[in-house]
C-alpha cells in the first residue's frame, strides 16, 4: 500500500528577468498522505501557483523530484505527464474554466469520456457528483445559466470525476463573495473527503486554511 500520494523533494524553480535570476522555489519538500487535505498558505506572489503548476506537471523547467502516487513524474515525457494528469490528478482553479457550449453534466462527463468511459457511465457519474453538490436539478443548464457558486461546484465535480488520487486547487473560491465561498468550500471539502482523494489547496486566506487537515506556509520560496 502506498503511504504517500505526493512526495516533493528539493523542488526548485527560477526565472531570468532583466538580467537577474529570481528564485521562486528554493528546495521545497512536501509530503501529502492518502486522503489528507493540505492548505498551501502564502500571500499573492509567494510562489503558490508555481508550486501547483510543478506538482500538476503543467510546466517544465523545475529541478528536484515529484512523486505522484508512488511514481516519479518530474522526468516523464509529454505523453507520460498527460497520462498522470488524466489518471491521477484533478484540478480546480479560481476561475471555473467550464466549456460554455456544454451543460453542467456534459462538462463533468468530458474527462470521463476522455478516459474511455461509456456515455452511460459518464452520465451516471456526473449526475452522482452534481447531485451530491446540490445541483441535481441543474444538470442540463449551461454555465451562463448558473450562478458563480454553481459554476464552481460544477468545476469541483469535474475535478473529481475520474476519482483522482490528488486534487490540486488554486484559490478555488477566490472569485466568490465570502458567504458563497464558505458554502462552496465546505461542499468541496466534504466531497473530497467522501471520495477519499487527497488535496493540496493554495490560498492566501488564513481562515479558509484552518478548515483543512494541515497548513504549510510558503515563504521566500521555502515551505515552513
From TrEMBL:
Domain of life of the source: Bacteria
InterPro entries reported in the protein's UniProt record: AAA+_ATPase, ABC_transporter-like_ATP-bd, ABC_transporter-like_CS, ABC_transpr_LolD-like, MacB-like_ATP-bd, P-loop_NTPase
Signal peptide residue numbers: none
Native source organism of the sequence: Sphingomonas psychrolutea
All residue ranges annotated as the ABC transporter domain in the record: 6-224
Molecular-function GO term, any one: ATP binding
Recorded family membership: Belongs to the ABC transporter superfamily.
Keyword Lipoprotein included in the entry's annotation: yes
CDD domains cross-referenced by the UniProt entry: ABC_MJ0796_LolCDE_FtsE (cd03255)
Protein name: Lipoprotein-releasing system ATP-binding protein LolD 1
Key words of the record: ATP-binding, Lipoprotein, Nucleotide-binding, Transport
Amino acid at each position: 500500500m502506498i503511504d504517500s500520494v505526493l512526495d516533493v523533494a528539493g523542488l526548485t524553480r527560477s526565472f531570468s528577468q532583466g538580467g537577474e535570476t529570481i528564485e521562486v522555489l528554493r528546495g521545497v519538500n512536501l509530503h501529502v498522505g492518502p486522503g489528507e487535505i493540505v492548505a498551501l498558505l502564502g500571500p499573492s506572489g509567494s510562489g503558490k501557483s508555481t508550486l501547483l503548476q510543478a506538482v500538476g506537471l503543467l510546466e517544465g523547467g523545475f529541478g528536484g523530484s515529484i512523486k505522484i502516487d508512488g511514481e516519479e513524474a518530474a522526468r516523464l515525457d509529454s505523453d507520460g505527464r498527460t497520462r498522470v494528469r488524466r489518471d491521477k490528478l484533478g484540478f480546480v482553479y479560481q476561475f471555473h474554466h467550464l466549456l460554455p457550449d456544454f451543460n453542467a453534466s456534459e462538462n463533468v462527463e468530458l474527462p470521463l469520456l476522455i478516459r474511455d468511459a461509456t456515455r452511460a457511465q459518464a452520465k451516471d457519474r456526473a449526475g452522482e457528483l452534481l447531485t451530491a453538490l446540490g445541483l441535481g436539478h441543474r444538470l442540463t443548464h449551461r454555465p451562463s445559466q448558473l450562478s458563480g457558486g454553481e459554476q464552481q461546484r460544477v468545476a469541483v465535480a469535474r475535478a473529481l470525476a475520474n476519482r483522482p488520487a490528488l486534487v490540486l486547487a488554486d484559490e478555488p473560491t477566490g472569485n466568490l463573495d465570502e458567504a458563497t465561498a464558505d458554502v462552496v468550500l465546505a461542499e468541496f471539502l466534504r466531497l473530497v473527503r467522501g471520495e477519499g482523494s487527497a488535496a493540496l489547496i493554495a490560498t492566501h486566506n488564513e481562515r479558509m486554511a484552518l478548515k483543512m487537515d494541515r497548513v504549510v506556509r510558503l515563504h521566500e520560496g521555502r515551505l515552513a
